[in-house]
Write a structure and sequence with these properties.
elongated; disordered C terminus; disordered N terminus; mainly alpha; two-stranded antiparallel ribbon
Length: 1459
C-alpha cells in the first residue's frame, strides 16, 4: 500500500544523554516541562487568577489542563509504551494552538513537545502513536500566538521547524500519513518563504531544516513499495500560492497576521480525553490519514520541488523584499533540495514509475532551461544533479543525457555561443567530473555515437576537450588544465580497462555484402558483450556511411542515394520505405532538400512521402503536437501544391491513429492548414492584426464532417499555437540548438521507443574505435599543454597521459599513433637542440630542465615497454641516443664496445695509422716543441677541471639517463616483433650515414661507429632472425668497406664486427651459414692500405672462426671465402704464420677436408708452399699436407663404392678425379720452386700422389690430362730452368732432374695398362721418349750431367723391358707399326744398343730363375730388374686389373737398385 516497511523488531528504549527512559523517568520529564510552561504563563498578567462575581477563583483551561496532567503523571503504573502519548502531549498542543498565548509561551510549549519527541519515548509500537503524531503535526501546523516582538516570533518559527524535523526523525515517523508529511513539508516551505523578510539566522535554519526533511523522507525510498494512491490535497498548491499576484507569503492557507499560522477557526482544538489506563486516543482521522506515508507523498513532494523551478522560471519581477535575488535564490534552493532527494533516493527512483516519469520529463526539462542560466551557482547545481542522475538512473535517461550535453554543456563550454568565462569554466568542470566516471565515455559512445538516431556525443565532447586544452595565443589557464584533466581521465580509463579484460584485436566485419534494412537491425542480447559489441560496431558503421550518404545527398540527392545503394544500405532497386527511412532517421541531411523531395509530384516521391509519414507514431497525441513533431523532421516547402501533399500525408497518418474527435482525414487536413495559418498569423511580425480565439473557432466551423469541433478542443489548440510557435524552418545544426518545448516533446516521444541503454562492464570492447577517433587531437592537446606548462603537477599529468596513450596504442597496434607520440616526446627532451660542441653547457642546460628530463625518461620507458609497435619513431629515438652519446651521458654498457670480443691490433692503432698517413702528431721534438707541448697540456688541464655546478649537472643527467635503461632497447631487441625490429635496424643504418666513395670519413665517424656497434649487437641478439636482418646490415657493412681507402675506426668496426657475427652465429644458424661466410668476401674488397693495416688481426679472427666453427662450414662457397682469406695471408709477413696454422688445422689428417673445400685447401697449401716468407720447413709442411690429402680422396672413393648407386658413383668418381688432378697440378707448380729442398720434396709428393691414384679408380682419360699438363710440363720447365737459370738461383738442379725422370718412369710403368688402352698412347709414349732424349742431351751450366747420361738409358731400358713383358711394345706382323718404329727412332738416339739388348732377334727370352741363398726364386738379368721395378710400382696388379695369381716372380718391395 505504499507504506514504509515496518521493522520486525523495535529496539528497546535508547538512552539519551545517559538517561534510560522507563516508567519512573517520563513523569519527571513531563513534570519539569509543565513547570516550565506554567512559569512562563504566570509571568503574564493575563494568565493570573480570575475571579467571578461570586469571588470564586476560576483558572484558564490551558493552565487547568496542565495542572491536571501534573497531578496524574506520578500515579501512572503502566510502562511508557502502554500510555497514549496524546494524554501528556495534548495540554502542550493546546497551548500551541491557542491564539491567546504570546510568543514566549508558545515557544516553551514547542520546546516541551520537541523534547518529548527526541527522547524516543514514542515509537511505532506505542499505543495510539499514530493519533498522537498526527495531533502534533496538526497542532504545530495551525500554531497561533501573539507577536510581541520580531525576535520572539523568529524563535517560535525556529521551534516549529525543530518540532517538524523531530517528527520526521522520530521512530514513530513511520506512522505519519502521506497528508501529514506533505503538511510538514508545506509548512516548512512557507516558513522558508516567510523567512525572507526575517533575519539571516532564521533563513538559514529554515533552509537547513527543509534540506533535512527532504533527506529524511527520501532516504526511506528504498524501503517503500510502489503505490497508486494519490493525495487529496498535495503540496503543489503552495507553489501556486507563491506565484500569486503579489507573491505574499501565507502559511496554513492564510496570510500571516499577528503570529497566527492556522486557518482554522478559533477554539478549534478539541482533543479527546482518554484515561491513562486505557492508553487509547480518541482523535479522529480521515481515511487518507489511516495510510502510513510512502510513495504518494514522495511523488507530491518531488513534484512540488520540480514545480518550484517552474515558479522561478515564470515568476514576475514584482515587489518582494527577499534579501537574495529571487531569480537565483529560489531555483538554487529548489535545485539543492532536488539534489538531496536524488542523492538519498538513488537508484530506488527506478523502481517507482511515478517518480521516474517526473525525472524524465518535468525535472530534466527544467534542468535544460536552468542549465543555460547566467548564474554559475545554478549551472553548477544543475550539473551536479545531472551527474547524480547519470550515476543512478542513466539507463532510463538516454536521450535526456544526450540533450543535456548537446544543448547545455557543448554550448556553454564554447565561447563562440556567447557564454561567459564563468559559465564556460563551470561547464568544463562538470564535463571533467563526468569524464572521471570510468563508464561515462564508453557508454556515451556505445549508446549515442553508435545509434543512428542520436548525435555523436563522444566525438563532440572529446573534440571540445582537445580544443579547449589548446592555449591559443594566450598563457596556460585553469580552463586549459581542466580540459587536459578531462582528456587524461578518458585516456587513463581506457588504459585501465586493458588490464581488466582481454583485448580482442580481431576486427569485427561490419561491411555489408548485401542489402539489409538498417533501421530494423536489432541486438539479440544487450547483456552479453559478445552480442552487443558487434551490434554497436555495425551500427556505427551504418551511421558513418549514412553520414557520408547525407553529405552526398546534400550536394545531389540522386548521388546520395546511389552511394547508399553501393554501400548496400539501400536496395539496388529503390523502394519507397527504404528511402523514407533514410530521410527519417539520418542526421545531417539538409532539411530544405528533404522537404522538397517529399513534396515532389513524382509518383515515387509521393509514395516515399506516405511511407515517411508512417514512420511517426501519433497515438494519444494532440494535433498541434503531432504537427510539431512531423515538421521537425524537414522544412515545409514553399509551394502550395507541395504543402498540400505533405499535409495530406500527415493528416492521413494522424487520422489512422487518433480518430476519437476527427471524423475523417479531411477534417485533419483542414485543421492542419488552419493551424499553419494561425501559426503564421501569431508569430509573423508583419501581421499587425492578430487572429483572436473566436476568429479561430469561427474559421473552423463545420469542418468535421459537416459538424463543429468541440470548442475546448479548438481553444486548447489555439492557446498552444499562440504560446509555442511551430517552427516550419527547423535549424540545421540541431545538435547545438536550444531545447524548445516542441523539441522536448519530440524527445520524450522518441525516448519511449529508443533502444535500451547498454551498461558498461569494465571490458575494453569499444576502446580501440574510441581511441582511434580521439587520439590525434588528444596527443596534440597534451603536447601543447606540456610544452607551455611551468608546474610539476601539470608535467606529471601530461606524462601520465603520454604513458596511457602509449599503452593503448601498443595494445591495439596503432603504430602511427605511437610514432606520433614518440616524435612529440623527442622534441620535448630538447636533446636535439643541445650543442655537443660545448658539452658542459649542454649538460648543464639539460639538468636544469625538469621537463626535458621527464620527457626523456618517458620516451625511453615507452621504447622499452612498447617497442613492438614503434615504426618510424625509432629514428627519432636514435637521434636522441646519438646526442646522449656525444654528450657522454650514456651508461658504459651502451657507450663502450664489447672489449672482450674486439681484437686488439698489434701493429697500428687508429692514432698510429693517422700518423703513418702523414698527419703530424701533436708531440714534437726540440725546445719550441716541448714548450708548446707544455702550453697545450696546461691548457688541457685547465679545461678538464669542472666546476661544482658542472659536476652536479653531470651527476643529475647521468642518473636520469641511468633510469632510462637505454641498453635494454638493444639487448632486449630479440623480443621485438619483426615488424618493429626491421625499422629499428633501418633507423640505425640511416643514422650512421652513408660514406661516399673515395671519402675516408662520413660526416660524423664517431656516430657511424657507434651505430655500427649497435647494429652488431642487435644482430648477435637476434641470431634466430638473422635471415630477416642480414640483407640490410650486410649492405651497410659492404658500403663502408668498399668506400674506405685508409684505415679508420669505422672500417675497423665493420670488418671485425662482420667476423664477430660470423663467429657467434655459425654454430646456431646452419641455414644462413653460406650467406654469412659469403659476406666475408667483403674483406677481400678492402683497399690495399686498409687490408695491410688489419691483415694480421683479420687472420687471427678467421683462424678463430675456423677452429671454432669448422664443422658448421659445409658448402663450397663458404669454404671458398675462408680459404681465400687464408691464402692471401701467405704473402703477408705478419699474418702468414697465423693463416698457415688455420690451414694445418683444416688439412691435418683430413680432419676437416671435404669435397667442398678440397681443391681450395690444395690451392691454399700450394700458395703457402710457394711462399718464401716463412721457413723452408713450412713449405715442406705445406707439401706434406697436399700429399697427405690423397688419403681423403681414397676414403671418399671407397665410401662411394659402398653407399652410392652406379650413376652417382660415376659422378663421384669424376669429381674425385678432378680433385686429384687439381692436387697434382698444384704440386707440379711447386716442383719448379727455387729452393731445392722444396722443389725436390714437391716432386716426391707429386710422385706419392700419382702413385696413390691407384686407390681412387680414376677414369682413363684423366691420365692423358695428367701427363701432358703435369708431368711433361714439369719436365720441360725443369729443363728450361736448368739451361737458363744460374746456379745461384736454382741450386742442385741435377738431383731435381733425376727425381723428375724417375717420377715419370715410375708413373708411366705403374699405369702402363691403362695408358696403353688410350688412343693417344702413341703420342704419350713419344712424349716420354722425347723428354728422355732431351734430358740425355741436357747441359747443366754448359756441361753434360754424368748422372743423367747414366740414368736415362737405364730408365729407358727398364721401361722397354716392362713394355715388352706386358705386350705393349711388340712388333706387328704386318710390318706397319708406327709405335714400334717411332720408338726405336728415339731410343737409338739415346742408346743404340738398347734394341738389341731388349729385343735380340725380336724373340722374347724366358728369364732364368735362380735360387738365392734363402731359397727363394730370383730373376736374373736386366729383365728381372725391369719386372721387379714394374711389380714394385704397380703393386700386385695383373693385366686385367686383378691380383697376380701364383706368380713365379718374387715381388721386391723397394726400388733401391735403380739409379
Amino acid at each position: 500500500m505504499g507504506c514504509i516497511k515496518m521493522q520486525s523488531e523495535i529496539e528497546k528504549h535508547n538512552a539519551v544523554d545517559g538517561i534510560f527512559f522507563n516508567k519512573t523517568t517520563l513523569p519527571y520529564i513531563l513534570n519539569s516541562e509543565i513547570a516550565a510552561v506554567l512559569a512562563v504563563m504566570r509571568r503574564n498578567v493575563r494568565w493570573g487568577a480570575r475571579y467571578m462575581s461570586e469571588d470564586d477563583q476560576i483558572e484558564h483551561s490551558l493552565i487547568q489542563n496542565l495542572k491536571v496532567l501534573r497531578k496524574q503523571i506520578f500515579f501512572w503504573q503502566n510502562p511508557c509504551h502502554d500510555i497514549s502519548p496524546s494524554i501528556y502531549l495534548q495540554p502542550f498542543l493546546d497551548v500551541i494552538r491557542s491564539d491567546e498565548t504570546g510568543a514566549p509561551i508558545t515557544s516553551v510549549a514547542l520546546s516541551s513537545v520537541y523534547k518529548i519527541l527526541t527522547i524516543d519515548v514514542i515509537d511505532q509500537k506505542t499505543i495510539n502513536a499514530k493519533n498522537a503524531m498526527h495531533s502534533v503535526v496538526d497542532a504545530v501546523s495551525s500554531c497561533r500566538f501573539e507577536v510581541t516582538d520580531p525576535a520572539s516570533e523568529e524563535v517560535v518559527l525556529m521551534k516549529i521547524l525543530q518540532v517538524f524535523l523531530a517528527c520526521i526523525k522520530s521512530k514513530a515517523s513511520v506512522v505519519l500519513s502521506n497528508q501529514h508529511v506533505c503538511n510538514i513539508v508545506t509548512t516548512c516551505f512557507r516558513i522558508v518563504h516567510q523567512a525572507s523578510t526575517k533575519g539571516e539566522l532564521l533563513q538559514r535554519i529554515a533552509r537547513q531544516t527543509m534540506h533535512e526533511l527532504v533527506r529524511c523522507i527520501f532516504s526511506r525510498l528504498s524501503g517503500v513499495e510502489d503505490s497508486k494512491d494519490a493525495l487529496v490535497n498535495g503540496v503543489t498548491t503552495v507553489a501556486q500560492e507563491i506565484d500569486g499576484p503579489d507573491n505574499e507569503c501565507v502559511i496554513g492557507g492564510k496570510q500571516l497576521e499577528n503570529g497566527n499560522l492556522s486557518s482554522e477557526k478559533d477554539g478549534q482544538s478539541q482533543p479527546s480525553d482518554a484515561s491513562p489506563e486505557s492508553g487509547t486516543s480518541v482523535a479522529e482521522e480521515n481515511t487518507v490519514d489511516d495510510v502510513p506515508y510512502g510513495i504518494p507523498c514522495m511523488v507530491e513532494i518531488f513534484h512540488f520541488l520540480c514545480s518550484l523551478l517552474n515558479v522561478a522560471e515564470h515568476a514576475s519581477t514584482g515587489r518582494r523584499s527577499n534579501t537574495i535575488a529571487f531569480d537565483e535564490d529560489v531555483p538554487l534552493f529548489a535545485l539543492s533540495l532536488i539534489n538531496s532527494a536524488i542523492e538519498l533516493g538513488g537508484p530506488s527512483f527506478h523502481q517507482h514509475p511515478s517518480l521516474l516519469n517526473i525525472i524524465q520529463d518535468e525535472l530534466f526539462h527544467n534542468l535544460m532551461q536552468f542549465g543555460l542560466s547566467m548564474s554559475p551557482l545554478i549551472l553548477s547545481m544543475v550539473c551536479n544533479i545531472v551527474l547524480n542522475l547519470y550515476h543512478h538512473l542513466r539507463t532510463q535517461l538516454k536521450l535526456q543525457l544526450e540533450a543535456f550535453f548537446s544543448c547545455v554543456v557543448l554550448r556553454l563550454a564554447q565561447s563562440k555561443y556567447g557564454a561567459s568565462y564563468q559559465q564556460q569554466e563551470v561547464a568544463m568542470e562538470a564535463l571533467v567530473d563526468f569524464c572521471r566516471q570510468k563508464s561515462f565515455m564508453v557508454e556515451m559512445y556505445a549508446n549515442l555515437d553508435c545509434d543512428i538516431s542520436c548525435g555523436n556525443v563522444f566525438e563532440d565532447l572529446t573534440s571540445l576537450l582537445s580544443k579547449s586544452a589548446f592555449p591559443v595565443n594566450s598563457p596556460l589557464s585553469s580552463m586549459h588544465i581542466l580540459a587536459l584533466d578531462g582528456l587524461i581521465a578518458i585516456i587513463q580509463g581506457m588504459a585501465e580497462r586493458i588490464d581488466s579484460g582481454s583485448v580482442n584485436l580481431d576486427q569485427v566485419s561490419v561491411k555489408f555484402e548485401e542489402y539489409s534494412p538498417f533501421w530494423k537491425t536489432a541486438c539479440e542480447n544487450y547483456s552479453d558483450p559478445a552480442s552487443w559489441v558487434p551490434f554497436m560496431l555495425q551500427k556505427k558503421y551504418i551511421k558513418t556511411k549514412l553520414f557520408i550518404g547525407a553529405d552526398h545527398f546534400n550536394q545531389d540527392p540522386k548521388k546520395g542515394l546511389e552511394f547508399l545503394q553501393g554501400s548496400h544500405l539501400l536496395p539496388d532497386k529503390l523502394d519507397p520505405q527504404s528511402v523514407a527511412c533514410f530521410l527519417r532517421y539520418t542526421t545531417g541531411l539538409d532539411k530544405n532538400l528533404v522537404g522538397d523531395y517529399l513534396g515532389n509530384h513524382d509518383d515515387f516521391c509521393i509514395q516515399v512521402l506516405h511511407e515517411f509519414a508512417r514512420t511517426f507514431d501519433f497515438q494519444d497525441m494532440n494535433l498541434d503536437m503531432a504537427l510539431r513533431l512531423f515538421l521537425e523532421a524537414f522544412r515545409l516547402p514553399g509551394e502550395a501544391q507541395k504543402i498540400h501533399r505533405v499535409l495530406e500525408a500527415f493528416s492521413e497518418r494522424y487520422y489512422e491513429q487518433s480518430p476519437e474527435i476527427l471524423v475523417d482525414k479531411d477534417a485533419a487536413l483542414v485543421l492542419s492548414y488552419s493551424l499553419i495559418l494561425l501559426n503564421t498569423d501569431q508569430h509573423n511580425v508583419q501581421v499587425k492584426k492578430k487572429m483572436t480565439e473566436d476568429d479561430f473557432i469561427r474559421n473552423n466551423r463545420q469542418i468535421n464532417g459537416g459538424g463543429d469541433l468541440p470548442r475546448d478542443f479548438l481553444s486548447e489548440l489555439y492557446h498552444s499555437i499562440c504560446k509555442n510557435e511551430i517552427r516550419t524552418t527547423p535549424e540545421q545544426s540541431a545538435g547545438l540548438a536550444e531545447m524548445t518545448s516542441s523539441r522536448w516533446i519530440s524527445l520524450m516521444y522518441k525516448s519511449k521507443k529508443n533502444s535500451p541503454f547498454v551498461l558498461f562492464d569494465c571490458g575494453p570492447h569499444l576502446d580501440k574505435d574510441m581511441f582511434a577517433i580521439m587520439s590525434g587531437p588528444a596527443i596534440a592537446a597534451i603536447s601543447v599543454v606540456f610544452d607551455n606548462a611551468e608546474h610539476d603537477d601539470v608535467y606529471k599529468s601530461c606524462i601520465d597521459g603520454f604513458l596511457a596513450v602509449a599503452k593503448i596504442s601498443a595494445s591495439y597496434h596503432l603504430q602511427n599513433v605511437l610514432d606520433d607520440l614518440v616524435v612529440s616526446l623527442c622534441k620535448f627532451t630538447t636533446l636535439l637542440d643541445l650543442d655537443p660542441a660545448s658539452v658542459d653547457e649542454a649538460v648543464l642546460a639539460f639538468s636544469d630542465d625538469p621537463k626535458a628530463m621527464m620527457a626523456t625518461e618517458t620516451l625511453f620507458s615507452i621504447a622499452n615497454k612498447y617497442g613492438d609497435n614503434i615504426r618510424s619513431g625509432w629514428r627519432n629515438i636514435l637521434d636522441c641516443i646519438l646526442q646522449l652519446h656525444k654528450l657522454g651521458l650514456l651508461p658504459a654498457s651502451v657507450d663502450s664496445a664489447e672489449e672482450s670480443e674486439k681484437p686488439v691490433p698489434k701493429s697500428q692503432s687508429s692514432s698510429n695509422l693517422t700518423s703513418s698517413m702523414g698527419i703530424t702528431s701533436r708531440k714534437s721534438s726540440g725546445l719550441m716543441g716541448r714548450f708548446s707541448q707544455l702550453l697545450y697540456y696546461d691548457t688541457e688541464e685547465t679545461v678538464l677541471q669542472p666546476t661544482d655546478e658542472q659536476l652536479a649537472a653531470q651527476q643529475i643527467s647521468r642518473q636520469t639517463i641511468e633510469k632510462c635503461n637505454v641498453d635494454s632497447i638493444f639487448t632486449e631487441s630479440k623480443f621485438l616483433q619483426a615488424e618493429s625490429l626491421l625499422p629499428l635496424v633501418r633507423a640505425l643504418i640511416s643514422a650512421a650515414g652513408r660514406p661516399q666513395k673515395g671519402n675516408s670519413f662520413v660526416e660524423d665517424e664517431d656516430d657511424a661507429v657507434f651505430c655500427l656497434e649497435l647494429l652488431i649487437r642487435i644482430t648477435l641478439n637476434n641470431r634466430d632472425r638473422i635471415a630477416l636482418l642480414w640483407e640490410g646490415i650486410h649492405e651497410h657493412i659492404a658500403n663502408i668497406v668498399q668506400s674506405t681507402v685508409i684505415p679508420c675506426a669505422l672500417v675497423e668496426k665493420a670488418v671485425f664486427g662482420l667476423l664477430r657475427i660470423c663467429q657467434r652465429l655459425l654454430p646456431y644458424k646452419e641455414n644462413v651459414a653460406d650467406e654469412l661466410l659469403r659476406s666475408l668476401q667483403l674483406v677481400l674488397k678492402l683497399d690495399a692500405r686498409v687490408a695491410d693495416a688489419y691483415c694480421e688481426q683479420i687472420t687471427q679472427e678467421v683462424t678463430r672462426l675456423v677452429k671454432t666453427n669448422a664443422p658448421q662450414i659445409r658448402s663450397q662457397i663458404g669454404w671458398r671465402t675462408i680459404i681465400t682469406l687464408l691464402s692471401i695471408t701467405a704473402r703477408h709477413p705478419e699474418a702468414s704464420e697465423t693463416g698457415f696454422d688455420a690451414l694445418v688445422f683444416i688439412m691435418t689428417n683430413g680432419a676437416h677436408l671435404l669435397p667442398a673445400n678440397y681443391v681450395l685447401c690444395v690451392d691454399a697449401s700450394r700458395q703457402f708452399a710457394e711462399s718464401r716468407l716463412g721457413e723452408t720447413e713450412r713449405s715442406v709442411h705445406s707439401l706434406d699436407l697436399m700429399a697427405g690429402s690423397i688419403t681423403c680422396l681414397a676414403r671418399w672413393a671407397n665410401e662411394a663404392k659402398s653407399t652410392m648407386t652406379d650413376g652417382d658413383m660415376v659422378k663421384m668418381s669424376q669429381n674425385i678425379g678432378e680433385m686429384w688432378l687439381r692436387l697434382v697440378q698444384g704440386l707440379r707448380k711447386v716442383c719448379v720452386d727455387q729452393r731445392f729442398e722444396v722443389r725436390n720434396h714437391a716432386i716426391l709428393s707429386l710422385q706419392k700422389c700419382l702413385a696413390g691414384a691407384d686407390e681412387i679408380s680414376l677414369p682413363r682419360d684423366f691420365w692423358l690430362q695428367c701427363f701432358e699438363p703435369v708431368i711433361f710440363s714439369m719436365l720441360d720447365d725443369l729443363q728450361e730452368i736448368a739451361q737458363v737459370r744460374s746456379q745461384k738461383e736454382y741450386r742442385n738442379m741435377e738431383a731435381t732432374l733425376i727425381l723428375a725422370l724417375k717420377l715419370t718412369s715410375k708413373v708411366f710403368l705403374q699405369f702402363l695398362r691403362d695408358l696403353s688402352q688410350l688412343t693417344e698412347f702413341h703420342d704419350l709414349w713419344l712424349g716420354v721418349l722425347t723428354r728422355m732424349e732431351n734430358y740425355m742431351k741436357l747441359k747443366i751450366r754448359g756441361k753434360k750431367s754424368y748422372e743423367l747420361q747414366e740414368m736415362v738409358p737405364e730408365l729407358l731400358k727398364n721401361t722397354l723391358i716392362v713394355m715388352k713383358a706386358w705386350g705393349v711394345l711388340v712388333k706387328s706382323d704386318s710390318g706397319k707399326d708406327s709405335t714400334w718404329e717411332s720408338t726405336w727412332v728415339h731410343v737409338n738416339k739415346i742408346d743404340q744398343t738398347l734394341q738389341s739388348e731388349v729385343f735380340p732377334d725380336q724373340v722374347d727370352e724366358q728369364p732364368e730363375l735362380k735360387q738365392d741363398e734363402t731359397g727363394s726364386s730370383k730373376v736374373s738379368g736386366s729383365v728381372g730388374l725391369a719386372i721387379h721395378y714394374s711389380n714394385t710400382v704397380i703393386g700386385a696388379t695383373g693385366w686385367e686389373g686383378g691380383p697376380v695369381k701364383s706368380s713365379p716372380l718374387k715381388i721386391w718391395t723397394g726400388f733401391t737398385m735403380l739409379r
